[in-house]
Amino acid sequence: MSQPPLFESVQDLLLHRPPMLLLNAVASWGKGELEAVVDPQDSRLLMDDEGRIPSWVGIEYMAQAIGALAGIESLQAGQPVSLGFLLGTRRYHAEVPFFPVEQELRVKVSELLRDETNLVLFKCEIYAGAELIAHAEIKAIQPRDVDALMAQFSQMNATGEK
Fold first, then answer.
1. Per the omega criterion (within 30 degrees of 0), is the bond before 19 cis?
2. Beta-bridge mates of residue 94
3. Distances (CA, A) of 108 to 49, 50, 88, 126, 149
4. 126, 137, 140: which is closest to 58 by C-alpha?
5. Which residues of the chain have pLDDT under 50?
6. CA dihedral 38, 43, 49, 52 (to 10 degrees)
């Protein structure tokens, strides 16, 4: 007897929905790594007045790929997909000022470090064909109890703590 697929579409892995769902598909994944497919035409909301996609949008592509990997890990553990947070980006570098609108992009993320609080450092790369056009390291966290974390932030906000 065969197992049903873990997920049918990238929408099963992320809480994002169009027009902010920027990944088209997951091409492959393994322990701590994922490769996603982006059709730049789906990034219309982020295009400039000349129909170009600024390279800073790559950070969102990377973050959504990390989210898709976290979604897969949640589903594999029998848990629902949940909220995660991008905490920081280090050394983001794009070889181009704008992403090619006419060419599919590949976003690769791989886990470098993880601590006991579920804070994770990822190596991220974006390719147009075989050409590496952007890369960065991204820190993200998927708290085990999002509601408790949000309550803590609300309490800190109410008391003026930082």
1. yes
2. 134
3. 28, 28, 17, 6, 29
4. 126
5. none
6. 0
Strand-pairing partners, residue 139, are 88, 121
Q: Which two tokens stand for residue 123?
A: 């190596």
DSSP 33: E
Position 154 scores a pLDDT of 85
Q: Per the CATH hierarchy, to which homologous superfamily does domain 10-159 belong?
A: Hotdog Thioesterase (3.10.129.10)
Residue with tokens 């969102």: 60
Query: pTM, whole model, 2 decimals?
Result: 0.91
β-bridge pairing 119-128 and 53-54: unpaired
Joined together, the tokens standing for residue 21 give 């769902």
| The predicted structure's pLDDT at residue 1 | 58
Residue 142: the pLDDT is 87
Q: Which tokens is 80 given?
A: 């629902």
